[in-house]
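Figure 2 data, in text form.
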Amino acid sequence: MNLLLFESRRGDALPVLQPLPKTAIAQRRNPTTRWSRLQDRIRTTYRRLEERFDYNERLCSALRQVPELKVRHSTRMDSEAARKLLHRFFVRQRLKHSAWLKVDVVLAGLGSILTPIPGPNIFFFYPAIRAFGHYTALRGARDAGRLVRLSFAPEPLIDQVQSNLDQIEKLRPLLVQLEQQYNLTDLERRLFSRGARR
C-alpha cells in the first residue's frame, strides 16, 4: 500500500494513505454474554462513526492491517529524512492517542456508574467508542514503526504540490494527477484540512 508523505510549511508530516480502508473489526456471530453484546455494539457504532473521526486517527487505525508500506516522499529529501519525518509523526500520534485513551477510559468508567439508571446512557457509550478508536490508532501507530516491509521512494509530483501550495489553480491539476496515479479521493481536503499551508 502506498503512503504519500507531504510536509507542511512548519515541517510537520502530512501522510495520506492510499486507499484508506474502513477499519476491519471482527464481530462475534452470537454474542452470549452481556459484555460480548456490549463489545459488539461498540464495534458496530464505531464503524458507523469512523468517517467523522480525525483523518490521522483513521490512518493509524488502518495501518494495523497493512503488511507492506511504500512511502512516496519529496525528491528534496532523502529516504533517511523521510523516515525520520514519518517516525516523528508516529511518535506524536502515539503520545496523543495514549493520552486520549486514558481520558476516555476514565470517562467511560465514570459513565458506566450511571448504567443502572433508566434511560439512554450516552455518557458511557460515546467515551467507550472513542476509547476503542484511540486504542486502534495507538496500535496502528506502534505497529507501523515496526513494519518489516517498509520502503521509501521519491515522487516528483509531491515536490510540485508543495511548491504550489499558495496557487490553488496550479495545484488542482497536480492533485488530480496524484489522485489518479495512487487511487486517492479528495486529496485537496485531506491536505488543507490538516494545515498544509501552515
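Caption note: The helical segments are 34-49, 55-62, 79-112, 122-144, 156-163, 168-182, 187-192.
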